[in-house]
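S.,

As promised, the iron/sulfur cluster run. Input:
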Amino acid sequence: MPPSPAELREPILDWFDVHARDLPWRAPDRNPWGVLVSEVMLQQTPVARVEPAWRAWMSRWPLPRDLADAPTGDVLRAWDRLGYPRRALRLQECARVVVERHGGVVPSSEPELMALPGVGSYTAAAVRAFAFGRRSVVLDTNVRRVLARSAEGVALPGPTQSAAEVRLADAYAPADDATAARWAAASMELGALVCTARAPRCDTCPVVDLCAWYAAGRPADEHAARRRTQGFVGTDRQVRGRVMALLREAIGPVPAQAVAAVWPDAIQLTRCLESLLTDGLVAKIPPLSDDAEPTYCLPH
Ligand code: SF4
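Predicted complex:
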């Protein structure tokens, strides 16, 4: 029998009271914008890299209005090595929409949050819970894993999120706003610190006596063959990262020849450069004469 919602919640909430990390976007003086920024940064980047970047970012642009007015090149430079820099552009667009449509104040309703650039259902749910203390089903990879193991008895959730998982998460979320918001943070923290993907520390887990997967003898992952592990070396993502790093660190426009030197495969480099231009992450400055070459820089 899987543990009931009440059985699972209490020990995890108690554990969280003691073990929650002291993260700046959880501080009492945080504002909803800071929570939204943290959620966008955390989408594809680990906490250890996000924390210093978030502190620097929020001291430079504490409010949506500050980010909305910033030069885009500065925003991309400040994003630095968090990866997937389109998120920085979306965040600036989001800041502009918050200023234009909401007077610079982050909205709290799900439809208004979901209408912001770069904010999907997960980020909207997280902002509602962590910034406004509202009940919402916050289902990231950590929470999915904790529920898959403890409640469903499987090693890992399926490769894509299902409607059944959302229903399960909804059933396990407490009814009242304040406890539901704490539960969202607590179940996520347990997945990040204890019930980790590769080496769950069941011996220190507050629900080891209730966990369905542990009770079943920790059976193997039935989806293992379908999971693709995405490499990085040699990918377009690596090439795009090299180009962005070159332009971030340059003090002026970079000649095409210098851009070409970052990657040996000219066809792949051209493809990546085109995609960066299309995404608005890089600007191309045409040559002043026929025998000169174009230069590239971050957008202004
Ligand atoms: S007992 Fe192990 S698998 Fe179960 S929830 Fe705790 S850490 Fe995860």
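The mean pLDDT is 95. The CA atoms of residues 78 and 202 lie 39 Å apart.

- D.
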